[in-house]
């Protein structure tokens, strides 16, 4: 029996705080054309505004989960909220694009302290019968953020309150963070799983550098015409990631602190689940390309752009709420989710490629894709976290979050690079259609991995 009576109230504030992380991703995408105009920024600088946030989040989210284990999830969650608050203010009042990119980096640091505390707390505070409902509530936040990000972003960009425009998409974080800081103080306990170990800062540094060396060449490759050294840096990032893993194995053998328990990465079903999560988050490319396409090619205003993405966002929000009511196995639901993603994005590519302007058919196809996203997210989160013991819940939730973020950053970077690189050759409609079709194609990898996952479990 769960004795923590305030667990549902705490989940509400945890979820509201974690809501900020995806909200800031979606809402900033809406503001990219305005930021470009304000700072005369290049396309690769705009990609960095998006990518540096997700990259920092991805690199440090495991640290966030580990810090929660060591110093209390309540303390680390509140620290993340304060960091997010201060960096959001810095973003809003950036004097140039370089300052904005740096402020976004620190915003990513704050975000990395938030999400891991939610998943780990669900694993610890809720019993097995309550966890599906709790995970579904948390997962629905991502869908809600996609709706709120697009609509709220469009509204704020049109508001022009006291001469402010794109700045408002960052200032909107202020009241939410303050509310969560107060609420979490009164509703959440401060349970610690481990107290004696320290943080593996060397491992964290290796992970951050390797991810930077992997993502940055993809972003800046087009600018430097894909010179040989771009691929050399990319390869070095992959090798450094392998070195990070070997260092973690060595540290564990020597009884030193580790950032990621290597045994988690040796747990094949767990790792296969992480790969599925990684690939379905390539859907982030839609939220980079679609607002840009609508505003730059079709000259829609921010509100119209926000409304155009609503079908995807509504379905993304509804998907996690429907999951507990559907009596189908998790393995089948994964196929259903990936199948809807493939169908929805393929049809969207087809409709935009031929019609150029969004239509009711486009809305339906985006709804199908969003429903697929909303279905697969809670299923994969619950399936993955259930494979790991409560003692390693913080690290496991950190790895789930890192898979989400690296998938989002990598997918957004690759899809965005394809989109921006092909516009001048094939035009806006076909460039966008190609980008969306690639998102659909990538989901086939997830289906292949799920087949392997099922065969492994049967053994």
From TrEMBL:
TM spans (from-to): 12-32, 44-64, 76-95, 101-122, 134-156, 168-187, 199-220, 226-249, 270-293, 305-323, 335-354, 360-379, 399-419, 431-449
SUPFAM superfamilies associated with the record: MFS general substrate transporter (SSF103473)
Membrane disposition: Multi-pass membrane protein
Keywords: Membrane, Transmembrane, Transmembrane helix
Cell location: Membrane
Main location: membrane
Residues of the Major facilitator superfamily (MFS) profile domain: 10-458
Annotated protein name in UniProt: MFS transporter
Highest classification ranks of the organism: Bacteria, Pseudomonadati, Bacteroidota, Flavobacteriia, Flavobacteriales
């Amino acid at each position: 029996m769960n004795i923590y009576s305030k667990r549902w109230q705490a989940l509400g504030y945890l979820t509201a705080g974690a809501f900020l992380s995806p909200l800031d991703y979606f809402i900033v995408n809406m503001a990219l054309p305005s930021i470009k105009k304000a700072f005369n920024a290049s396309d690769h600088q705009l990609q960095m505004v998006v990518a540096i946030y997700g990259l920092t989040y991805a690199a440090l989210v495991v640290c966030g989960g580990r810090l929660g284990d060591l110093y209390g999830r309540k303390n680390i969650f509140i620290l993340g909220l304060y960091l997010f608050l201060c960096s959001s203010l810095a973003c809003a009042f950036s004097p140039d694009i370089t300052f904005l990119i740096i402020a976004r980096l620190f915003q990513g640091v704050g975000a990395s302290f938030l999400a891991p505390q939610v998943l780990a707390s669900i694993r610890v505070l809720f019993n097995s019968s309550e966890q599906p409902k709790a995970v579904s509530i948390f997962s629905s936040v991502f869908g809600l953020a996609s709706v709120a990000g697009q609509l709220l972003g469009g509204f704020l960009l049109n508001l022009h309150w006291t001469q402010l425009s794109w700045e408002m998409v960052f200032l909107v974080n202020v009241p939410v963070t303050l509310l969560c800081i107060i609420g979490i103080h009164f509703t959440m306990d401060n349970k610690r799983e481990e107290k004696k170990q320290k943080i593996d800062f060397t491992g964290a540094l290796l992970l951050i550098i390797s991810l930077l060396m992997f993502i940055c060449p993809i972003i800046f490759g087009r600018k430097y015409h894909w010179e040989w050294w771009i691929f050399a840096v990319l390869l070095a990032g992959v090798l450094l990631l392998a070195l990070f893993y070997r260092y973690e194995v060595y540290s564990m053998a020597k009884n030193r602190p580790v950032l990621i328990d290597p045994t988690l990465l040796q747990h094949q079903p767990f790792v296969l689940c992480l790969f599925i999560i990684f690939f379905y988050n390539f859907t982030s490319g839609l939220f980079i390309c679609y607002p840009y396409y609508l505003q730059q090619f079709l000259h829609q205003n921010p509100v119209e752009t926000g409304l155009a993405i609503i079908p995807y966002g509504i379905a993304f929000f509804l998907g996690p709420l429907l999951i507990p009511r559907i009596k189908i196995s998790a393995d089948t639901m994964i196929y259903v989710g990936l199948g809807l993603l493939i169908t929805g994005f393929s049809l969207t590519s087809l409709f935009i490629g031929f019609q150029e302007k969004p239509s009711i058919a486009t809305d339906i196809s985006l709804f199908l894709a969003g429903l697929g996203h909303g279905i697969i997210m809670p299923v994969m989160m619950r399936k993955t976290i259930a494979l790991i013991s409560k003692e390693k819940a913080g690290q496991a939730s950190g790895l789930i979050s890192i898979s989400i973020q690296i998938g989002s950053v990598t997918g957004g970077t690759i899809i965005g690079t394809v989109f921006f690189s092909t516009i001048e050759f094939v035009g806006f409609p076909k460039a966008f259609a190609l980008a969306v079709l690639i998102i659909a194609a990538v989901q086939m990898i997830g289906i292949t991995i799920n087949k392997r996952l099922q065969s492994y479990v049967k053994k």
